[in-house]
Amino acid sequence: MLNRLREPLLRGLHALPLLLPSSCALCGRAGRMALCAACSRHHLANAVPRCACCALPLSAPSSESASGPERCGACLAKPPSFDATIAACDYLPPLDQLVLGLKFGHRLALAPMMAASLRDAALRSSRLPMPDMLAAVPLGGKRLAERGFNQAVEIARPLARHLGVPCLPRLLQRSRDTQAQSLLPHDERRRNVRDAFTLSTGAADMIAGAHVGIVDDVMTTGDTLDEVAAMLKRFGASRVTNYVFARTLPG
């Protein structure tokens, strides 16, 4: 009896995307993808030259030097704790609506699309080495309870499958809750996240000498990711690369 019921049930599950069509998060066109092919080509396919370290667009890009991908003046003058950043796009309209839709609109179907965009950006940065593992910037306990999910983890899981590396969603932990960075002036954000992150129990041996990839939805000033990278380096990580869907522009 169970076998006779199983086949029609599976057929029904496969038909759900047709019975309940989704729509493009930007243009509203009906379809089975969170972002339609036309919007994806228009908004995400045109890569801009970026600083290999902080992923800000380069105002006057030049060819890569023999020592590796180009860095902006700020990263050359004061190198952050992380070694590289890969970003799929800038945090500008209309792509900012994708971030807001995932984080506050619970549109979890956007996370795999963001992961695929990051995969493409990583493949374009062919001179940057792939990480040994991926982890996600952790949310504080209160914010995680309110939201019900960590958007960085939702992006990290499919991205890890794309890159062929393990995803360790519990590798990083918050040692204390912090204020939302977006609510603070830029000059207070570094102090807000200082000593706010640590490793899960028993993880130190895992990252010693490893290249760790850190996933987040948006990189604004980079203070949070810099603090995470500094903590990982203290525990012996050899390299830290950020994978962020969107990069906020200065100003």
From TrEMBL:
Domain Phosphoribosyltransferase: 152-246
Ranges of residues in domain Double zinc ribbon: 16-76
Pfam family membership, one: Pribosyltran
Family per record: Belongs to the ComF/GntX family.
PANTHER family reported in the protein's UniProt record: DNA UTILIZATION PROTEIN YHGH
Entry protein name: ComF family protein
Organism of origin: Noviherbaspirillum galbum
